[in-house]
Amino acid sequence: MIWALLACTPAIAPVEAVEIPQISAPRLLRRASLDLRGTLPSTAELDSAEAQPEGIQATIEQWLLEPAFQERLVLMLGEQWHTRVEAFPIEAWDYDLEDQEYAFERAVGEEPLRLAAHVVTTGQPWSEVVQADYTLANPMLQEIWGLEALESGSGWVRAQYQDDRPHAGVLSTNGLWWRYNTDVSNMNRRRVAAISRLLVCHDLLSRPVSLGESASEDVENAVQTDPACMTCHAALDPAAAALFGFWTVIEYSEIEHANYHPERELLYDRYLGVEPAWHGVPVSGPESLGQAIAADPRFDTCAVQRFSEALIRRPITREEQVSLGAGYEGVVLDWLPDLLASPQYGAQEVRLLTPQQLDSALLQATGFSWTQDGTPMMDLDSGGLRQLAGGVDGEQVKGPQQVPGLTRTLVIQRLGERAARSVAAQGSIDIAQWHWRLLAERPTDQDMDALEALHSTVLAQSDVQTADAAVLTVLMRDAAFEAY
Amino acid sequence: MRRRDLLSGGVASLLLPGLFGSKAHAAGALQDSADERCFLFLYAEGGWDPAVTLTPMFDTPGAWVEEGSRLEYGGGDLPYVDHFSRPALGEFFRQYGAELALLHGMEVPSISHESCLRLLLTGQSQALDPDWPTQISGSPQDRPMPHLVIDGPAFAGNMSERVVRLGSEGQLPLLLKDRLADDLDNDKVDPQIQALIDASVAQRSASRADSSSYLAGHAQAHLESVQGLSLLQSQAQGLSLNQGYPGCTRDYETDFETLFTCFDAGLSRCGMIRHKGWCNQGWDTHQLHERQGINWEDMGEVLLELMAMRDRFPSVKERLVVVVVSEMGRHPRLNNWGGKDHWTWTSAMLFGDGVQPGVVGGLDEIGQGRNVDLSTGGSGSVRLGPQHLGDTLLSLSAGQVTGTPIQALLRS
């Protein structure tokens, strides 16, 4: 029987082993450092990679255990989950936090991302992301939502809601549901579409919809009877039914949106007329919905796809998903070394630094960060530079910029000018060392001649500090700097 | 001009403003009027209800009809739904109806805002290709800001170098002037030294682009963006790239001025402006459907501002195409919450150079789109979709048309 089934299974055509050209060891170290730490490697680390390329993987694996990786995961997942937005149904001023708008928006939007990153970096099975009996919260969230911290600490710690909501990992977080808000007639369907896309890589919304005649008369009836509607609603509505405790019916009310509503759990029967289920598997609420999602065969393959795309920074093919996921057994942290050692990760493909990577890399290398009233400009849309620098805002821009553009080039110019001045103010520079540090490339004689000529020309018109800054600006605006 | 030609001109030529684009290009080298057209997209975010104003549903059984509304005819005998609470919109139809083309019964086959928006602007539910404005906008080597997004969506696909965002608070002009954020006391780079730095950056990119490195393609794109920026910086001096929020919503008049200034200067070919309804209350009226009428009146005021601004830019006016769209329509009937749910059939409004005024398509007795004859706009066998709108826009822009444009919308 098994053989018969296997014989019927459509086989994936064997992929001919094609050698994928790899980037140099120092550039690979730079890529991994920017991905996992958000910073450039030190010159000592680059020297070591150049001298002993075989030692790179051990270094990279070590970085997976550093706290910085958790911060990077939050940002990488944010590009996919689109929760780091600057508009929620409830705003900072609803909590008298109008002077902390950025901190409020990031706290809310990062709640599910922090939980996901925590699951990964603590080596737990990825299924915990929909089953954990806690969330992650910083002091602001603890205060405004009345969460109880489960451990001490001044930053993001494990915490629990105190409103009797069921525990289902990210499915129980306000942060996720505020981003994927619902309303009286949507009744959680948008939320189900979101978790379907994020957790099992099934984009229900991409299916074409062609409404039949019955939809013209009675929409609510049509979703259960019209084949055109049922294509999606047969999957959407039962899962939406499991989330009725999170259903909100009053707009702009922080009490309505911040709290779970157990008294609404059974309203699905009245409004949706279907029993809670996940793709045919009966569930009784968010907890068992999380369990059903974790047991969905697509959950693991989706994890491979999502994390591969986060680090390879492009869509991956089905064949790549199969080959990259060969060693995946449900614990992302255990599998990431395989991904980072894969030819696809080290391929000679250009990835562009995100605005946040630009900020953290230059902060660590130069001590400069562009801020306004303490808010990082490279992570801010309203009045800031995240969107203009090619970043994902989660609303109007859903994917990172892949090729240079005018505004991104302008942002990097202004950022580079400031960072360069900051370095130059600290003392004279070693051009060759900065070339190595910023680009992970040893300068050629031609490079050095050109840069020294620039330095001399500027020096003739100005002073050493200005000349140093000019050379550093050129390096920070170099095509190889924004690429990694 | 090719990169190799540029390189042969030496380092200075790498950044020489005027080699690309600019007014000279727009005035001289362009082939015909379609090449010269510029496009303004005004996008009503959230799903408007055309039945409130554009597509009368008085005879549709069960359809919600606003009390006090009546069928009226504007300029050119253009039918529309009038209401005493919408004087500005009525004025717009009366004054400019003879210019307008209305596209009715266009099916956007999704009921999700995001998918509908992608479908509307790209013809695909998962936008891999660039949207129509991005495709139309052309190369940054012709205009440094081909598609200027004042506010709103853009699906750039693999042409993200064409899309330039002004920034929600006008960050782009501030960046150009180097006056952003805490920079009021920022030490500006001396212009002469700046020129040396710019030339060095361009030189390094040109060298990389000419190498066999895997970075060569990226370096070429980088070089072009540096050149585009140099061109913009040389031309943007004295240009108004402003925007403002005088009340609870955008200052659309300023937006139009900014965009037309860029069209006029040859800096841009396309622009996107988002309308989020009166006081940003949104068009997604699952409840409180009366907001649609208020939004339409606000849209009427915005359109009148647009026409007034158009008159201030005669050279833009004669080659301007305006496209007013929303990602979806609203169901003919009210829901249980006093609002209207999503509907896959919607309308679009176009006017301007090359656009044949009149009405194309319509709704049947249950509020679904009627099949049309693309050449006449009357009844036919074609189900109208966003792809037809896209092909029409590409045709108007002399772009590469892969499908079938709506000939009835094209002035012969």
- Broad structural category of chain A: mainly alpha
What is the overall silhouette of chain A? elongated
| CATH architectural type of chain B | 3-Layer(aba) Sandwich
What fraction strand of chain B?
Answer: 5-15%
The averaged pLDDT of chain A comes out at 93
Give the N-to-C terminal Cα separation of chain A.
50 Å
Which CATH class of chain B is shown? Answer: Alpha Beta
Continuous helix count of chain A: 23
What's the SSE blueprint?
The complex is a heterodimer of chains A (484) and B (412).
Chain A: H1 2-8, H2 25-36, H3 43-51, H4 56-63, H5 67-81, H6 101-121, E1 135-137, H7 139-145, E2 148-149, E3 157-160, H8 174-179, H9 189-200, H10 219-225, H11 227-241, H12 254-258, H13 268-271, E4 277-278, E5 281-282, H14 286-295, H15 297-312, H16 318-324, H17 332-340, H18 355-366, E6 371-372, E7 375-376, H19 406-424, H20 431-439, H21 445-461, H22 464-476, H23 479-482
Antiparallel strand pairs in A: 1-3, 2-3, 4-5, 6-7
Chain B: H1 3-7, H2 11-14, H3 22-29, H4 33-36, E1 38-44, E2 70-73, E3 79-82, H5 87-96, E4 100-107, H6 113-122, H7 132-137, E5 147-149, E6 163-165, H8 171-177, H9 191-209, H10 216-235, H11 252-264, E7 270-275, H12 290-312, H13 314-317, E8 320-326, E9 329-330, E10 342-343, E11 345-352, E12 358-360, H14 386-396
Parallel strand pairs in B: 1-7, 1-8, 4-12, 5-6, 5-7
Antiparallel strand pairs in B: 2-3, 4-11, 8-11, 9-10
Helix pairs in contact in B: 5-12, 6-14, 9-10, 11-12
Write structural notes for this entry.
- The complex is a heterodimer of chains A (484) and B (412).
- In chain A, helix 15 packs across helix 17, helix 18 packs parallel to helix 19 and helix 20 packs parallel to helix 22.
- Chain A is built from 23 helices and seven strands.
- Helix content of chain A is 50%, strand content 4%.
- The N terminus of chain A is likely disordered.
- The two termini of chain A are 50 Å apart.
- Among the domains of chain A are: 44 residues, no CATH class; 128 residues, no CATH class.
- Chain A has a three-stranded antiparallel β-sheet with strand order 1-3-2. Chain A has a two-stranded antiparallel sheet with strand order 4-5.
- Chain B has 412 residues and is α/β, with parallel strands linked by helices.
- Chain B has one domain: Alkaline Phosphatase, subunit A (3-Layer(aba) Sandwich).
- In chain B, strands 6-5-7-1-8-11-4-12 form an eight-stranded mixed β-sheet. Chain B has a two-stranded antiparallel ribbon with strand order 2-3.
- In chain B, strand 2 and strand 3 form a beta hairpin.
- At the A-B interface, strand 6, helix 19, helix 21, helix 22 and helix 23 of A face strand 6, helix 8, helix 9 and helix 10 of B.
